[in-house]
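QA checklist item 7 of 12: single-chain prediction sanity check.
[x] sequence parsed
[x] length recorded as 134
[x] structure emitted
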Amino acid sequence: MLIVALFIIVVMGLLVAALSRLVISSTDMVSTEVLGARAFFAAQSGLEIGLAKLYPLQRKTSASDSTAIGEAMVCEPKDYDFSVSGLAQCKAQVSCVESNDPTTGTKHYYLTSIGKCQQSSFTTSRTLEMEVWQ
């Protein structure tokens, strides 16, 4: 009887250890998934800020202003740290490349945003790209 009881205790101990390992693994996966979603939204926010810098809603209109109506702003790389509650501990690196099509005279802007979020030992990154033309 003692051997059967000892066997049951060992089997139950192994079962508890396996279940606790499964719970820890599941928690890590959920944390990674949440951080991945936040990194995606950080990258999307970076793209939207970059697009707003290229094409602002309120353009300068007077003759003394440096930017005329219909003219886009400067295409430049920029880093953003987000301090809002949903994107805390997230950053976005936005890069911009400008090219001109000589046949049509069209300006192309290629925006790339890399959103990174870090919390304790977890770090996730998402990259989004956008092409706009004028």
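[x] summary fact logged: Confidence is low (pLDDT under 50) at residues 66-70.
[ ] second reviewer sign-off
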